[in-house]
């Protein structure tokens, strides 16, 4: 992804409309809402001030890796999406957080380590990942060249139809997912970045939606349970492992001992952690996940071929009467009513 370049000389912020017109804008359907922003410099403090505005750098620590540092940035975007490219030739450690946009990043050069949720992950050249969203994370950049696509949070959620939607941060996509994302970049990036030619709002929206669709297909989405544990630290990480285990094995014959072992906790430690952070017992958690799974099967099922009893048993509910009563208390309707609404 190659962004437009200027002369390469140190310059102030050159934000401007992407395709200026000699005629004043009148709000017509031909107006190009994209902006083009290009900055180049060698002043580390100016770089930190600029990047902090977009990425909320907190207590950054910089070590020079060469006699004369260099940084540059270029971006083309509108209110829904921007494509960006940056270099920062220093050793930078800082905490960061972004909560209004989903950021897809891939490394061009240098090295970068992201620490989030108790895990440290090295970015791989050319492999796109979604950076953490609405949670603080630590980054360690070393002479990086980085490409990013910013997708507006509200536009993505409106497109998906889920006001709680989020991607699973730092989870490497499958090989097919990487191909899907790269295909979108190849097909649309050059058109989006061509700032010398005016683009209609219809084309802008089409390209933005193509990137959103590729991201949703390529990158794992974050289940709502994963965002229920707020904070970072060893206990939060163990609790997330417990939740992940329950969601992966809810159909199996598991209980507190198995969940605690998967999380690296004692049974009492699991009980205390769940109570402290989610106000649940292990039994409450397992029952809730199984009810959600049963409801999903009922809503997707064919009422002529699906048995409420079979679905209940497949999710570990041995007593149909108690299952129906618990299900109704949770969802406000009987399991048979969920099956009929399909």
Overview of the molecule:
- This protein has 342 residues and is an alpha+beta fold.
- It folds into 2 domains: 203 residues, Sandwich (Jelly Rolls); 117 residues, Homeodomain-like (Arc Repressor Mutant, subunit A, Orthogonal Bundle).
- It is 40% helix and 22% strand.
- Strands 1, 2, 3, 4, 5, 6, 7, 8 and 9 form a 9-stranded antiparallel sheet that branches.
- Strand 6 and strand 7 form a beta hairpin.
- Helix 3 packs antiparallel against helix 4 and helix 6 crosses helix 7.
- About 5% of the residues have low confidence.
- InterPro entries: AraC-bd_2, AraC_XylS_family_regulators, Homeodomain-like_sf, HTH_AraC, HTH_AraC-typ_CS.
- Keywords: DNA-binding, Transcription, Transcription regulation.
- It comes from Curtobacterium citri.
- This is Helix-turn-helix transcriptional regulator.
Q: Quick one: CATH superfamily of the largest domain?
A: Jelly Rolls
CATH class of the largest domain: Mainly Beta
Helix content: 40-55%
Compute the average pLDDT.
87
Characterize the main sheet. Answer: 9 strands, antiparallel
Report the oligomer. single chain
Shape: globular
Radius of gyration: 24 Å
Please give the CATH architecture of the largest domain. Sandwich
Structural class: alpha+beta
Which stretches of 5+ consecutive residues score pLDDT under 50? 6-12, 21-29
Count of DSSP strands: 9
N-to-C series of helices and strands: EEHEEEEEEEHHHHHHHHHH
Count of helices? 11
Looking at CATH, which topology of the largest domain would you report? Jelly Rolls
């Amino acid at each position: 992804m190659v962004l437009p370049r200027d002369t390469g000389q140190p310059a102030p912020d050159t934000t401007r409309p992407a395709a200026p017109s000699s005629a004043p804008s009148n709000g017509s359907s031909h107006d190009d809402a994209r902006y083009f922003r290009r900055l180049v410099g060698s002043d580390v403090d100016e770089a930190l001030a600029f990047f902090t505005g977009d990425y909320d750098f907190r207590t950054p620590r910089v070590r020079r890796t060469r006699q004369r540092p260099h940084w540059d940035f270029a971006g083309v975007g509108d209110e829904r999406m921007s494509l960006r490219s940056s270099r920062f030739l220093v050793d930078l450690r800082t905490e960061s957080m972004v909560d209004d946009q989903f950021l897809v990043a891939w490394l061009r050069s240098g090295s970068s380590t992201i620490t989030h949720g108790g895990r440290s992950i090295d970015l791989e050249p050319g492999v796109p990942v979604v950076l953490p969203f609405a949670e603080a994370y630590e980054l360690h950049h070393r002479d990086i060249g980085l490409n990013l696509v910013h997708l507006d949070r509200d536009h993505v959620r409106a497109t998906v139809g889920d006001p709680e939607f989020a991607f699973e941060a730092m989870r490497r996509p499958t090989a097919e997912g990487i191909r899907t994302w790269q295909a979108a970049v190849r097909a649309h990036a050059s058109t989006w970045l061509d700032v010398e030619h005016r683009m209609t709002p219809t084309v802008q929206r089409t390209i933005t939606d193509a990137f959103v669709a590729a991201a949703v297909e390529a990158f794992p989405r974050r289940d709502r349970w994963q965002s229920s544990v707020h904070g970072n630290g060893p206990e939060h990480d163990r609790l997330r492992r417990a939740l992940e285990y329950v969601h992966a094995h809810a159909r199996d014959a598991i209980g507190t001992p198995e969940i605690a072992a998967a999380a690296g906790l004692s049974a009492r430690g699991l009980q205390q952690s769940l109570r402290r952070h989610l106000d649940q017992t292990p039994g409450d958690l397992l029952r809730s996940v199984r009810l959600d799974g049963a409801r999903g099967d009922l809503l997707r099922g064919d009422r002529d071929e699906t048995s409420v009893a079979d679905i209940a048993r497949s999710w570990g509910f041995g007593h149909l009467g108690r299952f129906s009563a618990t299900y109704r208390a949770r969802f406000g309707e009987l399991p048979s009513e969920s099956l009929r609404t399909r």
